[in-house]
Design goal:
heterodimer; A: alpha+beta; 5-stranded antiparallel β-sheet; 22 helices; B: Transcription Regulator spoIIAA; globular
Chain lengths: ~575, ~110
């Protein structure tokens, strides 16, 4: 909102140079003022008009014009004054004086006719609304013609902003005020009111000029209030033929006319159609020049075309979105196929669940599509079985790839190296050479003699293997060396012990960290309890029984989980 | 989330805290490696670490390996019991240089 004082100062600053300011011709002002005097004699008024031959000619032309449609031909000034009446004479004089207040070349680079054409649309719109509003048509015409005069004054005061006329013309009435603040630091209604008051224009017209956007102040008489409403509606009606987004303007006119005058949309459109038809007639009557007028049908076509264009771009957007979503789904499906393939390859690295070997079993559950855990075992000579269980740091595809490499190394190197410690040292060097991002592998590797129950076990930073009897913990074998892939020269000592009829449990941290139904992690002590609890379950079923008991009912795993059990062959 | 880094007496001290897991270990990794690129001496303070998983440990291992390759100093200070139990189980206490505090490191001289 522009500060009223600043605006007045802006105008006042220019007021100090009266020659620069638009001012109505003195004769016209004298007639306007005389018309407003109560009890004024029509002969005196006629004499005032007759003193000015130009005004006389104008008055006779207007009185005889088709647009203002007086019943009989008017040949003399005195007859015109009598037929028109004081108020109509006043209004016509005002229109003429305002029209002439600024000469056509008063604003350099600006064709004032363009402004008056727009003003005429407001004037004819307001005149048509007079009937709906119960007001005098000529009064409304004058209000419509004068209501935006402040804009012409602003352009006169700031001629350097004339270059923005197209922007002003393309805007709706509301947008126009915002642009004016931007360009002039004031609005046409504010300036219009100030000038109307300083020129002593009739109160109702001053109100129409000053309050056709924000409404008149409290206490304003009802007729003037309605005149302001008419001016506001006329503003929107004229904008239908001028602004860029005609759909908004048409809709706003329908809304306003329905709200204030109970007009149907059809009636609104009818009035809008009449605007275009009346402008040329009114221009002739007022001695103004207007260009060829666009018909309302053309305006509607333009609005519908724009709507169609926008719909088209909306359809295009929708189409593109559908394409993008389709592409995303295709990529996702492709990725899923790749993952499924990776999972299959990975499964092939684990011992085949279908071919069970006695005395050894394992289970791997992955938290993601692919796992960073693995276990393996295979016979090495009579009654001997090589086995391993490992966990790659991290999860997901990178962990799965390192898992695949480690599993291959174990299979490949393990065929020739039967000493678990030496085997781990060899795998460690291989992994270290190609390790990235600090990734490492914790691993247990061992050989079990299933006839004697002797186990040789080495650990690379892995969780302790648990040696359980039927009812009690026999021993644990914690790591004595760091994980694979960290230091090239790590040494992995072997532990050798007898199974003593018990079982050896190897597991990854996914088991220890599994959330129990109480929300707590399993941890080591509870794991021992669970192992005891399920010690009597047949070996082939035990891994699943144990994992089922520790994985919550939702079955969601936070980490890959692997469990392997070795027992003496019985 | 990111982890704070303090410069103290010629050392860059990376302050890890809370639970270091797959969600924030990439942040830990970035902070540790950035510190090693800026300073010759980097200590990771694990006193406020409540839990560390293998991806978190991998961030420390990567720092350790980067320092070894580039002849920089990398150590752990004030290791919390939660973090220490993980390191001890994996025998990583044999791999990392661990001090009770930065002061203890300073007592060792350059």
């Amino acid at each position: 909102m522009i500060d009223q004082q600043v605006m007045e100062e802006t105008v006042a600053e220019h007021s100090v140079r009266p020659s620069d300011l638009p001012a109505p011709p003195k004769d016209a002002i004298r007639i306007v003022q005389a018309c407003s005097r109560p009890g004024v004699d029509s002969r005196d008024l006629a004499q005032l008009v007759a003193n000015d031959p130009v005004l006389t000619a104008e008055l006779l032309r207007i009185s005889n014009s088709a647009y203002f449609g007086l019943v009989s031909q008017v040949k003399s000034v005195s007859r015109a004054v009598t037929v028109l009446g004081n108020r109509a004479l006043r209004n016509l004089m005002l229109c003429l004086s305002m029209r002439d207040a600024l000469r056509s070349d008063a604003i350099p680079g600006f064709n004032i006719d363009v402004y008056w054409e727009d003003a005429l649309r407001r004037a004819v719109s307001a005149r048509m609304l007079a009937e709906l509003a119960g007001l005098d048509p000529e009064e409304c015409f004058t209000a419509g013609l004068l209501q935006d005069f402040g804009l012409l004054v602003l352009l006169f005061l700031y001629p350097e902003q004339v270059k923005h006329w197209d922007r002003l013309a393309a805007s709706t009435p509301e947008e126009r005020r915002d642009i004016e603040i931007d360009l002039f630091h004031s609005t046409h209604d504010e300036v219009g009111l100030t000038l109307a008051n300083s020129w002593d224009l009739p109160h109702d017209l001053a109100c129409a000029m000053g309050y056709h956007h924000d409404g008149p102040p409290d206490g304003t008489d009802s007729q003037t209030q309605i005149l302001c409403t008419v001016a506001s509606c006329a503003d929107w009606m004229a904008s239908v033929y001028r602004c860029a987004d005609k759909r908004i303007a048409i809709q706003q006119v329908r809304t306003l006319l329905a709200e204030h005058f109970d007009a149907s949309p059809e009636h609104s459109d009818y009035l809008l159609q009449k605007v275009a038809e009346s402008v040329a007639e009114a221009a002739t009557a007022m001695g103004m020049r207007v260009g060829e007028q666009q018909t309302f049908d053309q305006v509607l076509r333009e609005a519908n075309l724009r709507l169609a264009e926008e719909n088209l771009s909306y359809q295009e957007l929708t189409w593109r979105l559908e394409q993008a979503l389709g592409e995303r789904d295709r990529y996702a499906a492709e990725l899923n196929r790749e993952l499924e393939l990776a999972r299959e390859v990975q499964k092939s690295l684990l011992p085949d669940a279908g071919t069970r070997l006695p005395g050894i079993t394992g289970l791997n559950l992955s938290a993601k599509a692919v796992s960073g855990d693995f276990f393996d075992y295979y016979p090495v000579g009579e009654n001997k079985m090589a086995f391993c269980l490992a966990d790659v740091s991290g999860k997901g595809m990178n962990a799965a790839l390192l898992m695949a490499k480690t599993a291959s190394l174990f299979r490949c190197l393990g065929k020739g190296i039967h000493d678990p410690g030496k085997l781990l040292a060899m795998i460690n060097r291989e992994i270290f050479e190609t390790s990235v991002r600090g990734m490492f592998v914790t691993m247990l590797a061992g050989v079990v003699d299933q006839a004697s129950g002797e186990v040789t076990l080495a650990s690379a930073g892995h969780l302790p293997a648990i040696h359980m009897g039927c009812a009690a913990l026999i021993d644990e074998y914690p790591a004595k060396a760091p994980p694979l892939g960290i230091s090239p020269d790590s040494i992995f000592p072997n532990n050798t012990f007898e199974l003593q009829g018990g079982c050896l449990y190897l597991y990854t941290d996914g088991l220890l960290e599994a959330r129990m139904e109480d929300g707590k992690r399993l941890e080591r002590d509870r794991l021992i309890q669970v192992l005891k609890e399920y010690a009597s379950v047949p070996l082939c079923d035990r891994p699943l029984a144990i994992t089922d008991s520790v994985v919550g009912s939702d079955g969601v795993l936070e980490d890959d989980l692997t469990l392997m059990i070795i027992e003496e062959k019985t | 989330m990111t982890f704070p880094v303090e410069d103290r007496q010629g050392f860059s001290v990376v302050m890890l805290n809370g639970e270091i897991d797959l969600n924030n270990s990439p942040d830990a990794r970035k902070v540790i490696l950035n510190s090693l690129k800026k300073m010759k001496h980097v200590m990771v303070d694990l006193s406020s670490v409540e839990y560390i998983d293998s991806s978190g440990v991998a961030s420390l291992v990567e720092g350790f390996q980067y320092a070894r390759t580039n002849d920089l100093e990398f150590g752990l200070i004030g290791v919390s019991e939660a973090a220490m139990s993980v390191l001890r189980l994996a025998r990583l206490d044999q791999v990392f240089t661990i001090y009770s505090s930065l002061d203890e490191r300073l007592e060792h001289g350059s």
